[in-house]
Amino acid sequence: MGRPPCCDKVGVKKGPWTPEEDIVLVSYIQQHGPGNWRAVPTNTGLLRCSKSCRLRWTNYLRPGIRRGNFTEHEEKMIIHLQALLGNRWAAIASYLPQRTDNDIKNYWNTHLKKKLGKGQGGKGEDSSETKSISKGQWERRLQTDIHTAKQALCEALSLDKPIFISNSNSNSNSVMESNLTLPQRVDSVPPTPTYASSTENIARLLQNWMKKSPNSSSSAVSSDSNTNFSAGLSSSPSEGAISTTFSASVEADHEVKFETQMPLSLLEKWLLDDAAAQGHEGDFMDMALGETADLF
DNA sequence: AATCAAGTCAACCGCATTTAG
DNA sequence: CCTAAATGCGGTTGACTTGAT
Question: Which nucleotides of B are covered by protein (CB under 7 A)?
Answer without folding.
Answer: 7-14, 18, 20-21
